[in-house]
Amino acid sequence: MHCPFARNKKGVFLFMNSMTEGREWKQIFLFTLPIMAGQFLQQLYYTIDSIIVGRFAGDTVEACEEALASVGTCSPLIMLYIGIAMGMSAGCSIMVAQYFGAKRIEEMRKAVSTSLILITVLGLLFSVVSIAVSGLLLEYVLKVPENYLYNAVLFFRVYSIGIVFQFIYNIAAAILRALGDSKAMLYFLLISSALNVLLDLLFVPVLGMGVAGAALATVIAQAVSAAVSLVYMFRQYEILRFSRSELQYHGDMGLLALKLGIPTTLQQCVISMGHMFIQRMVNDFDTTYVGLTAAFTAGMRVESFILIPIFSFNIGLATFTGQNIGAGKLKRISTGYLETELMACIVCVVLSVAAFFSAPFLIGLFGVTDFSLTLGVQYLSFTSRLFLIFCVYIVTNGVLQGSGDVMFTAGNTLSSLIIRTVSAYVLAYCTPIGYAAAWVSLPIGWAWSLILAVLRYKFGPWRRKALVSSDSGEGELA
Question: What is the pLDDT of residues 3-12, one digit of tens each?
Answer without folding.
Answer: 444 444 433 3
